Amino acid sequence: MGKNNALHEQDKDAQGEKLVTGRLQMIPKDPAKEFKRTTLAAGAVLWRGDLSDIDSIEVACIHRPGYDDWSLAKGKVDPAESLPVTAVREILEETGYEVRLGKLLGRTIYPVLDRTKVVYYWTGEVIGGEFAPNEEVDEIRWLPIAEAQDIMTYDLDREVLVKAEKRFRLPATSRILYVRHAKAHEREKWAGDDNLRPLEKKGRRQAEMLVPMLAPFGPDRIYSAVPDRCQQTVAPLADELGLDVIVDKRLGDDGLIDDLVGAQQAFMDVVNEGGVSVIVSQGLSIPDVIAWLSANGRLPIDIEIKAKKASVWVLSFNNGELTGADYLPSPLPVR
């Protein structure tokens, strides 16, 4: 996208692009370097209502007095933040609402002065809080999606709402946060039982940073494969949420190798519990299980299924079938 010093935030439709197509969304390894001068931001389509009745769903339309426009809640990334962390912080600061993140809808891209602004949007169910007018947002209107599209100032925001409506019409009855363990000490330098190989310094930091990134999805339960590095990866999150870690050999590489069908059934048992579950696993299991879910679900995945250390796949299911997948490559700050 070329440089254009005449374009500002309120001109974002002029040369904007929307990348909100498809139920498979992948954040780049280093999103801040996607363009020469990138400004990263994140937000959400705030919603309330009952997903079993699409007519009951209302979304939040945000009025910004500084621009005199109607848009979606969003804001720029602060240092030390991952994109989901930015989304929930900015929403709380702008609107006073606490949200539970859901599906990553994609991103919009547009030039602002000599930079390229990239905004990632999730769905965000309001679970608490209260709006009070402030300098950034002086009014919020809760409207059905069709009316919200009419009031929005920008076409890019309307397209995000169109994508959100599609997700609401096929809602997630369960969601899995499928985490690969954080960076551990090198296998070649570890003489003991491989299951006892612990996290190294970077891995411990990754584990700590997973807490603010995963907590906004509202996990109900946490599972881990047997290796200590898997359990150590999720220990800070479990401590923060006050949840026990359920250890199951079938959810790791050894379980997959020993009994493929049993490993697949163990994963589906978690899916069928409903709600949001965390599963911490390993580099062999994660791509294999996701490929199997894709082949037997409603979401074709015909690209390489990545699983970097401490990465997260946010998998959405409708009545046991895979319907959406979002890849978050790292919990570490994006700037």
From TrEMBL:
This is Bifunctional NUDIX hydrolase/histidine phosphatase family protein. SUPFAM superfamilies: Nudix (SSF55811), Phosphoglycerate mutase-like (SSF53254). Keywords: Hydrolase. InterPro entries: His_Pase_superF_clade-1, His_PPase_superfam, NUDIX_hydrolase-like_dom_sf, NUDIX_hydrolase_CS, NUDIX_hydrolase_dom, Nudix_hydrolase_domain. It is an enzyme of class 3 (hydrolase). Its EC number is 3.1.3.-, 3.6.-.-. SMART domains: PGAM. Residues 37-166 form the Nudix hydrolase domain. It comes from the Bacteria. GO terms for molecular function: hydrolase activity.
